[in-house]
Amino acid sequence: MSTPPYYQNTPPPAKSNSNGCLKAAGIGCAVVLLVGIIGTIFVAQKVKQALNDPKSGGIFGTAVNAGKTGAQGAIIRQAIVKYHDKTGAYPVTLSNLIPAYVPTVADMHAPTDANPDPKHVSWKYMRPSADAGPKTPLLKTAIVIEMGGQKAESDVVINLDGTSQSHSNAQGSYGGGQPGSSM
What we know:
The chain is an alpha+beta fold. The chain is 35% helix and 16% strand. It has helices at residues 19-52, 58-87; strands spanning 124-125, 137-147, 150-159, 164-169. α1 crosses α2 (58-87).
């Protein structure tokens, strides 16, 4: 088969210039990178805002407050254990811990407590018996999570051995009433 006449004496096709694809890909990568950087800055600002003012930090603020509440429960549990180690008995109420083991009542007010009064004890203390096992519930409080107009509560329970557990209620009704302690 011979080459048709109109193909004779025509220059070969120009070499493909792949720089166009590389430029488009480079621009696309740069845009994605820029959006990622902006997103990271936004999230970092929200986390910083939540750490400074958890009530205005949305879901980040809820996470910060939940973490602070758990840490506070661990501190109160440790104070109860120290009291027991020193006296040989568990305190009758949480007020027995003040001021030797916990400085003030305000130190027992959880950041997740719906009651804003700093003198309100957020933790319900369940005095263990002398022969209580390590998984005996010791302290309990509620963490309220609000997102998109929906409210959910989770009971946080700290056991005698320092382990914890939570029981969430997506409907938002808390069966045990507001947590607290008889002082």
